[in-house]
């Protein structure tokens, strides 16, 4: 007898899963190779250091079998050491390897945090809009509240944070953790000031709350616009161990290796590591060694300035096109690092309807509402990271046509 | 103020996590390089086809940037196609790519199944003893019952299955899924007969239950002892779509790539894929391509006969040593494939106490009780896969000394 409808077999989590809007766009893009995509936050593939990666792979695969054997769940020891050095450069002292866990990309870090810390009686705070992968990870843990805090041009709004916190306390569910992306936030591209970072730490202390600091883009500040001090992590000022810090090689080397890491107090890392055992045993052995060698040989250090320059040039191209083609119709914040530009649509325009028309023009981006728990339909995210400069103006021209057809339809 | 005890931040899952006894042994082994290990089920590192892997890596990294870019969550398309072909060779027809999901090792497959299917009101059945990674994954989903079914020399005991099923039904929680490792089970090494496999399918149909079939060792049958037909998966006879089949490259190519796959009805795979998005976005791009190329170039096909011969020779060495040194004191089942020999201790001996004494003799193995929900203290698992033949007899000599010291202590 055929199985029939499978709903009876799903767990509460299995029933509530929501597919990522960004990943869905990726599938659309694969089917239409003539599309211009401002959708996925993919790094620029033309900058991947393939020659150096090839040399590293050859050397590694000339060694012994350990390079493709199972490894410790906590991570390849020399990589853990190299990352301890990298954290020091970011202003964070890792005092023991037990404070650092290698993860299968930062996404796994988010997932481990959600599973180990978030339960059905908890309240989790996120900036709104925020990274969809975090919404999925925290949502799958089914907290009582997944509550949003507003942002202004400077990032998370501290008054709104106080308001939401008080409201949750009145409901008997004080927040357990706050998720933030302080450097060139996904999706808004905003940079949180150091003053606000310190205020968040103070808030966490007062509320006995944890902060999850997701930092994939910190290295990608645009030189001349932002100083290295401005991207200094919250974790660097974390005296009490309230910050769980996440970062990754996905934006500074290549994402296909699925190597990220987290830094947190040892008793928490111990729990994350046990959860990771059941999740995937360990991250890829060869991938971890390649990432480690790429750090040791200076590949990452040599690459990062080129990434900054390339992404800045693409940001410039996007902003110039928007100014020339859509000034007065679209409004946006100019990002000073990272991959994303966040734009607000003209009144009466709606993100998903616009995306449908854009698709007819062979352009995709991500609807702003994907980054909210609900609402946000007057916004869109334009990723400039993966679009070659030559195509950016054509992409904006298509966006202008899609917007133009909307006004015609309404008039 | 320091964070203090972190227990107040843990979710119910986070509080209940149990570290894997096998992974813990791995940590012990790293600290004592002069140990002989019969503990972890590591494949033989000396057989990894490093030269061919190096050639593949060089060719791949001479291509375009896609090789280290983000990829689709469902898996690298040519790998999905190659695996569809591999499943056909195993007797399983995959009718659409939507029935197959590439996973970050089989462990991730288990974890996705647990999260998408298992909730707090459910009952999950496992063979006892069973793979600890499955116990962790299902345990983390916190089902009401994680119930064990006994095995006899032929594998899972159908009478006990009927008994446990009836008991769960009386409690109002009919089983939702049964987890089995039919080929050279971990930890017992047993091969389930085709007759019992068909009986399991019939049972699942009657009970409206799913079966999770974990098959990492099927290719590693010992030629001359077991026919290829004997390892044919349950999934090959699954007409209604009740079997979720898992396999991996970890035992036939190398585990460091973290590439596994699952085959299930498309509506279930769709859910697993969405859960994987939040888990790690996608499995490693380079790893998947290497595995794919290793299949295409015949590396896996050429390797597997050598693996069978090597593991059989190691099994032979282990059994010969046990016969000569421990006959009458230890009893065991001779496995006809896979990595493991399961042994029962003399009366009065206890697995953990023996392991402590073995450690003093510089030998490790895994306590049998690690593979049970509770009990099993009169058993141990000896993995012969990673131990060079030359060391096996010395390992057994150490085991004999550790056992001998136990009798002295008791006398």
The count of strands of chain A amounts to 15
Distance, first to last CA of chain A: 56 Å
With strands numbered from the N-terminus, the spatial order across the biggest sheet of chain A is 2-10-9-8-7-3-4
Largest contact between chains: A-B, 94 and 93 residues
Helix-strand topology string of chain A: HHEHHEHEHEEEHEHEEEHHHEEHEEEH
Helix content of chain A: 40-55%
Oligomer: homodimer
- Low-confidence spans of chain A: none
Query: How is the main sheet of chain A built?
Result: 7 strands, mixed
Under CATH, the homologous superfamily of the largest domain in chain A reads: Type I PLP-dependent aspartate aminotransferase-like (Major domain)
Shape of chain A: globular
CATH C-level class of the largest domain in chain A is Alpha Beta
Compute the number of structural domains of chain A: 2
Instruction: Provide the structure class of chain A.
Output: alpha/beta
